[in-house]
């Protein structure tokens, strides 16, 4: 009986380690910025570039949901297209217990790139967050530390996208600005 209990406890520990902890939802909407760069629509591509992409679907869904809810005035599409695109490449998204088992070390790192339909980069920046959280008893410390790092990286991402000036949405004709008839040619 004792072996069965120990076996079940070991199995529970292994199943908990099968992927990263899920994070609590977050969004940072600003009523003054309905959509980055004053545009009405973006394609949002979230790519998992981690060496070990465990739990990729849940992570991508959390990031996508956070971005979309932070810009409720946008129409969002996914996948690749020839439209204006925001790409988020995730490099790290994990929380690990340190060697002394006293704290959880969480790290969230991703690259954000916004490009117009012609492929011109409007902005590119890193959203990197790392933190340590004590290993409290009775708490899901892995989830709490990862959520905190995720929320900080998401807030940094939203601020960076909110900072895109609306003037970038104005398209200048390839031949240059139009001249008035008085200016001549």
Describe this entry's structure for a reader.
- The chain has 185 residues and is α/β, with parallel strands linked by helices.
- It has a single domain (30-162), classed as Rossmann fold (3-Layer(aba) Sandwich).
- It contains 3 helices and 5 strands, in the order αβαββββα.
- Strand 4 and strand 5 (121-134) form a beta hairpin.
- Residues 1-17 have low confidence and may be disordered.
* Percent of residues in β-strands: 25-35%
Strand neighbour order, sheet with most strands:
2-1-3-4-5
CATH topology assignment: Rossmann fold
What pattern of helices and strands is seen along the backbone? HEHEEEEH
Total number of helical segments? 3
* Low-pLDDT stretches: 1-17
Q: Average pLDDT value?
A: 84
Main sheet specs: 5 strands, mixed
Which CATH first-tier class would you pick?
Answer: Alpha Beta
Number of domains: 1
Count the E strands: 5
Distance between the termini: 95 Å
Name of the CATH superfamily: ABC-type transport auxiliary lipoprotein component
Share of helix among residues?
25-40%
The chain-level structural class is alpha/beta
CA radius of gyration: 22 Å
CATH architecture: 3-Layer(aba) Sandwich
Supply database-style keywords.
single chain; 185 residues; alpha/beta; Rossmann fold; five-stranded mixed sheet; 3 helices; 5 strands; elongated
Q: Care to give the gist of this entry?
A:
This protein has helices at 2-16, 56-70, 141-162, and strands at residues 41-48, 75-78, 85-97, 103-115, 121-134.
